[in-house]
Amino acid sequence: MTSSNSALILGDLQNDFLHRDGAYGRAGQTDPAIAALPGKLAPLVRTARENGVLIAATLFTLVPGRGGEPIISPHLKSLRPFLRKGDFAPGSWGQQLVDELAPADVAVEKIAYSAFHASRLEWVLRKCGVERLYFTGIVTNGGVASTVRDAHVREFDCTLIEDGCAAFSDEVHRAAIEGLRPVAKIMSIAATIESWSASR
To answer: What is the pLDDT of residues 173-186, one digit of tens each?
Structure first.
């Protein structure tokens, strides 16, 4: 399969998650493995651009509701009580892909763990002729895992880039990777770069 049939998914690699001035940074909610992802993924993103791999950023979004207050699910509100008005707002700086990885070819808002839920992601990928997906992002056991499983159900060819994802603990990350082996091929950043470069 050629690289033109492939897409690199950058899952939730946004300022509000990763930047020190973002929503999670202000609250001290970070992890070294998560913080390191943009630097680790920059060469992969560059190789994707050079080889015609579609770069698709999924952007977690808190949609404004009454009075502009963000619509936050009770589950998320209990986990992240620090989230406030303006965080992850559509079109805001916090919602955007981090500078180290920008720009993406396409950006799709997501409102749940899976980037396919109530979004236009599948429509965009089909219209762009994509059949194979390479997954990166945060967190491995949350948005990444849910999106990979939904992609598998939709019969995309799925590859999970193991060191291109991270969670709030290495143990949780590794357990999530193992759980996804039945539905996705597992590769490293280096091996993926090599395979794309070889297909040029």
So the answer is: 999 999 999 999 99
